[in-house]
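User: tokens in, sequence out, please.
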């Protein structure tokens, strides 16, 4: 079963230095969907280990299985427009509407 449009939870604003978690979920897809977050239209990298992620100054953890995007400490650089995409290899992937977070 192809995924339906996911529900995205993105806070509209956050204080610098706080922990922010964004959630993305859709329940119709079978097999279960994997989730990809985007910021300003660019796919966010999944943080794997330390090397390249640290070099790229990545401040978040993205879990493709659960659809969570977790910022340990948000900075002004994290301000932007976020959306996520659900895909399970069947039918078209589905995106939620873009939501802006202001830090």
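Assistant: Sequence out:
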């Amino acid at each position: 079963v192809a995924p339906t449009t996911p529900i995205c939870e993105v806070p509209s604003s956050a204080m610098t230095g706080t922990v922010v978690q964004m959630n993305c979920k859709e329940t119709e897809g079978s097999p279960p969907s994997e989730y990809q977050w985007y910021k300003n239209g660019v796919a966010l990298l999944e943080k794997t280990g330390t090397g390249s992620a640290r070099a790229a100054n990545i401040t978040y953890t993205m879990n493709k299985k659960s659809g969570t995007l977790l910022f340990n400490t948000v900075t002004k650089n994290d301000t932007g427009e976020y959306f996520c995409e659900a895909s399970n290899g069947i039918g078209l992937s589905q995106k939620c509407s873009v939501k802006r977070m202001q830090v």
